[in-house]
Amino acid sequence: MAEVIAALARAAEKWPDRIAFSDDETSCSFRELAARVAGAVERLAEGAGPVGLMAANGIDWVVADLAVTASGRCLVPLPPFFSDDQLAHVAGDAELSLILCDEDNRARAARLAPVETLFGPDVVGQADAALLRAPGSGQRIIYTSGSTGRPKGVRLGDRQLDYISAALARAISATSADSYLSVLPFPLLLEELCGIHVPILVGGLSTVRRHVAGACAGGDLDAIRLAFEEVRPSVSVLVPELLRAWVGALLLADAQAPSSLRAVAVGGAPVPPQVLQAAASLGIPCLEGYGLSECGSVVAVNRPGAAAAGTAGKVLDGLTVTIEEGEITVSGPSVMSGYAGGPDHQGAWRTGDLGRFDAAGNLIVEGRKDAMLVTAYGRNVQPEWIEAQLQGDPRILRAVLCGHGAPYPIALIVPGAFAGDFFQTAEPAAIIEALQGILTGIPDYALPRSFAVLTGDEMQTFGLLSPNGRPRRKEIETWIKGPEGRARLKTATRMEEKFA
């Protein structure tokens, strides 16, 4: 992070009046940003200990992020989607001495640690940007809930963060001419890197639209289409669900993506191939990637103009990735220092993900080792790519494959907006036939033969999803074998006979 802070100081001199960040309320030049960060650094120097950050995306969040880093104190972003119990665990585990927050999060944050209002222009004054020329050694602790729900803190310092920011900038050929649109929460490390650090490194513009993701989750798919049309960025980062929403909104509006776009990175989960194909036809230049917090959030990404669909692209320059007994193993400057409260990590990181390289050297990620299903016939089934294909159909909002030890996989289906009453009124045989018709290139033994239909709220109520929306596979296996799961399970006898 020393390089990012130094880049901010240089940008304040080279492009003092150029707009660096814009949000829903205001904008900020590089000179103004550097002065506000320097003023916040002076204020933070009065204390010690790790600092939590709990607020909505915006320029004030950016100032706090950079100021805590430049002050040499440890920054701990607090994800708003964590439960109160998870946040309490994070506050204790990281030993937070202070939480910077906005008014909307003040009451919640105050239950965890002492709080101060975020560094808005009316809260902290400006100072000489020269204060940024000798920044402290900032550290991050990034908490990830994973699938178990118990957050683990990943320790990342200057070495990891400076490397990954520069490597990302090179991978997407970022320049000062780029305009970035930020719609994901900044507590996600990838969005912090791409939405804050990379634009500062190259002197580009970052525009924050904090309400887009929430609006899409609430069913307003047009929010993302309108944001891209208004901002007309060249670069953005999305998760597959937001890409799907954008594709759907463009199709409904009979519109195309802005011609200004040159790179839209997509990661966090497998991308349905149907969505990638539709995105390409609509002018969205998708770049699939792969990474995890323990390796600085990005390990591999497709490059602009050279994307290989269905792969995560080439490994970032400076990293070494090997496949050991099928598992992706990473070594190099982005590998974490260790977990909070744990010993320092040395050497390569075994990711727990299965993968391989294609003939062109692109990384293909095949799913989690611990997600593997083994059927009663002894067949191994990796569920994540099957789930991605199912979720590429507009009738299906979410699909989770389960049935470890069963003769064939079982599909849990959350209907999408275009499903109508199909899943409520169609015969089980018709539904299974539809599910299998969506899947291409999947062997017979991996095709679902039975299913259960739930709403998104029921998935949460039954404890089948983690707070960040990932399937809790052990809980799902227990649920489907319990009374509620058995009551909802539907199997088409005729389909079973067909494959007997």
UniProtKB/TrEMBL annotation:
One of its GO terms (molecular function) is ligase activity. Residues 9-339 form the AMP-dependent synthetase/ligase domain. It comes from the Bacteria. Keywords: Ligase. The keyword Ligase applies. This is AMP-dependent synthetase and ligase.
